[in-house]
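Q: I have 250 residues here and want to know how they pack in 3D. Can you give me a structure?
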Amino acid sequence: MNNTETLEKLKNMRLHAMAQLHNQYMESQQNNSFTPDEYIALLADHQWESRQNNKIQRLLLQAGFKQKATLPEINYNQSRNLDKNAFNRLAALTFIEKKENIIITGASGVGKSYLSQAIGHQACMQEHRVIYTGTARLFGKLKVAKLDGTYLKEMKKLNKAQLLILDDFGLQELDNFARETLLEIIDDRYQQTSTIIASQLPVATWYDIIGEGTIADAILDRIVNSSHRIELKGESMRKAIKTVESNKNN
């Protein structure tokens, strides 16, 4: 069998990374420096790494992040009330294994979205399925899905996510549809998967935001008692960035 036939068979089996590396080594005759076992291991490792990288990139794309947030870029300035050691324990993602939740609160601009997306990014890197969404946008999408018959499909997609990130929770009081839908989401995920909720409002106000006492009690009982809490403080990070950029331009 000649090299061209080998390459075609590798490609037909969708072993494209292996085919590319094999062709590269054959053209340069570098394969002669390996034993057969070493060469096969080299090709297999390259194909494996390629598939893992492709999977991670696919998970990152499907997550729907609006920022490229990563753990090394997090600011642990004391004024933020963000303990580096405690946050790093969360970033180790054991809370996902334990089916626990995270609540991040703080004023607008203090970095709630960034922190939640940084954890989400890390989860994708560890091959967890993540969905990031604004809360109001999610309810709007599900309301349309209810009308066009795709509601169950959308809910199934949410349930499959090992980590669901609900950003900007509580910017608007919930109507009946949003209230009942939130309960359904939280109830389905309770002790099965993990959720991060980011909100400008302190948890103490969520009861009134949700409305309807019985449903509010059910939601808060399931989400709050099983959550790690991060309460960010300090000035807006966006304001700080603008100040730095202004100083650079002057």
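Q: Anything worth noting?
A: Residues 3-58 form one domain. The chain is about 60% helix and 10% strand.
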